[in-house]
Known about the structure:
Blueprint: H1 4-7, E1 10-15, E2 18-23, E3 31-43, E4 46-57, E5 60-71
Antiparallel strand pairs: 1-2, 3-4, 4-5
Amino acid sequence: MDSTNVLNPQLNASLAGRITMINTPSAGAAFVQAGMYGTVKFADNASAYAGVTAEARSGQVLAGGNIGVRVQ
């Protein structure tokens, strides 16, 4: 599990003599992560791959993906 101090950091700042506190959005510490990946060989020395990932926690959802060709 993530620690609350790492997950939701705060930063003190000052600009023109005014002091302010900068807070990050509040996201929960517990999360669910899932991913799907696949590879297709299309030649003796080459293949294509793709992947999709997602992570959800209270207050935040992240998603990403990758595709590529591998030649050996």
